Amino acid sequence: MAAPGVLFAVDALCIERLRAMKTAERPEYISQDLEELYFEEYPERTCELEGSWEAMHRAFTGGDFTFDGFDSEKCPLGMAILGGELLYFDGEKFDDYIISAKTPEQVKAVNSAISALTEADFKKMYKKIGSDYEDKSAEDYEYTLEFLQDSVPFWRFAAEHGLYVLFTAET
Q: pLDDT band for position 91 (50/70/90)?
């Protein structure tokens, strides 16, 4: 199972701060500053995904584990986890953490798509996940579905308030 992932609904200033700092400093900023502040002061701006994020992402992208190729208009659900601007992760030097940012426009597209997603639709998507995802099972589907459903109010809040969304996870 994947390491725990978290979504944060942040303002433009937070994104600018992340972009301005050295890449190597970004995970520490997330874990030392952002997590502490947001979990304590802004719980409505956080959404814990635990390890469900990998299956969720694979389901949203036709079974693939990929970081690119997401157009918020053509594949808005693909933007939800690993889509958007990759602020930390290159698969080589910076491979211990993932930070991706979605713009307010992308957040609105994800929100619309997630809000319209039915359980039957998600089940079909989950079934497309290939055998390279070792945790695929009925239990994992239920686990992932629960976290997906729990994320709907988060996406709505972020979209309604014109916020960016960061996805973060250790790898």
A: confident
Beta bridge mates, 87: none
pLDDT at 69: 64
User: CA 139 to CA 148: how far, in whole Å?
Assistant: 14
CA 7 – CA 84 distance, rounded (Å): 13
Cα–Cα distance, 48 to 167 (Å, whole number) = 10
Residue 137 has a CB neighbour count (10 Å cut-off) of 11
Cα gap 59→56, rounded to integer Å = 5
- pLDDT confidence of residue 1: 62
Exposure of 85 by Cβ count < 10 A (0-12 exposed, 13-18 middle, 19+ buried)?
middle
Strands (E), 75-163: 85-88, 97-102
